Amino acid sequence: MSTEESGKPPRDRTMKTEAISVSGTETKTACGKCSCIILYTSEFCVFCEAAEEILIDALTNFGVSRTAIREVDVETEDECGCRTDDVTMLPTIKVCDKHLTGLPEEQSMRDAVMQAIMKECFFERS
């Protein structure tokens, strides 16, 4: 059934590039998260660079800029407002409501990114 037949307007599939400003440095997405894509790292993380490369490749495949990634150092997380209390190992990548830990498989990352960009609340940070 098309949107004309159902009487509903077509869904807007453009990516949002705005967020809600909460305080000086803290910004929240429309759904209340500090970012749609968060990469939790530390200077001592052995696999964080490789995980970031897998994430960037997945984003690039869908035409999403690497600026969509909010990188959070777990040792200084208070500065950005992103919570780290549920991060149990590094690297941890949160893509919307999916949590990938360790060195993620490329297909798992692509699936998580695809599901995130299909949500109405997804936005790219600029």
Q: In DSSP terms, counting alpha (H) and pi (I) runs of 4 or more, how many helices?
A: 3
Radius of gyration equals 16 Å
Q: What's the count of strands? A: 6
Largest sheet, in brief, is:
4 strands, mixed
Helix and strand layout, with pairings?
Blueprint: H1 3-6, E1 20-21, E2 27-28, E3 37-41, H2 48-61, E4 69-73, E5 92-95, E6 98-101, H3 106-117
Parallel strand pairs: 3-4
Antiparallel strand pairs: 1-2, 3-5, 5-6
Helix pairs in contact: 2-3
Question: Summary?
Answer:
The chain has helices spanning 3-6, 48-61, 106-117; strands spanning 20-21, 27-28, 37-41, 69-73, 92-95, 98-101. The protein is an alpha+beta fold and 126 residues long.
Structural summary, described in words:
The chain has about 130 residues and is an alpha+beta fold. It has one domain: Glutaredoxin, CATH 3.40.30.10. About 25% of the residues lie in helices and about 15% in strands. It has three helices and six strands; from the N terminus they run H-E-E-E-H-E-E-E-H. A four-stranded mixed sheet has the order 4-3-5-6, covered by helices on one side. Strands 1-2 form a two-stranded antiparallel sheet. Strand 5 and strand 6 form a beta hairpin. Helix 2 crosses helix 3. The longest helix is centred in the middle third of the chain and has 14 residues. It is globular, with a radius of gyration of 16 Å. About 30% of the residues are buried. About 10% of the residues have low confidence.
